[in-house]
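Hello,

Our lab assistant flagged a job as stuck in the queue for most of the afternoon. It eventually completed. Since we weren't sure the result was trustworthy after the delay, we are filing this so someone can double-check. Below is the sequence as submitted and the structure that was eventually returned. Let us know if re-running is recommended.
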Amino acid sequence: MSLGAQTTARERLVAELREQALVIGEVVLTSGRKAQYLVDAKRAILRPAGFLALAELVAAQAREWDATAVGGMTMGADPIACAALAGGAEVKAFFVRKEVKGHGLSRRIEGPALAPEDRCMVVEDVVTTGGSTIRAIEAVREEGHQVCGVLAICDRLAGGAEAIERAAAAPFVALTTIDEVYPERPDRDL
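-- returned structure --
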């Protein structure tokens, strides 16, 4: 039996995030807050081992929530939505732009056309305050679609999960938390 078969997809994802995505040093987060570390999830999930683990987990969650579409704010959500497809979920992948595009089809939500009955699973790579995820939820709802749940790769445990659950009025699931990815982080006991 190979090592990959002995560990779960979740364990493999956590290991990849620790090894590939954890950046220690002062950074400015999307929220504007300064932090002493960053989880740059794309460094882990855009490699074969991380992507395969993510694909299995995201597809399973999409099936559990009966999602018919998976996506979120572009950049953070793009590889996650594609991972749902790669994992075998029978969903449409979509990406939410920060602003409506001024040319072409002038769409805010890109990808296959979403139907009114689509059940959208909104996804995000790393959640701190939840701001960009909430903007994606609002865009999906403004287009007349239902949010069946929100999935993040990593929750920094900074209040974002609670803010997202309030905004989404739907369940929030994080595949990992900062405590698992960086258990010795300096602000853990604050």
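-- support follow-up --
The delay was a queue issue, not a problem with the job. The result is valid. The mean pLDDT is 92. DSSP finds eight helices and eight strands in the chain.
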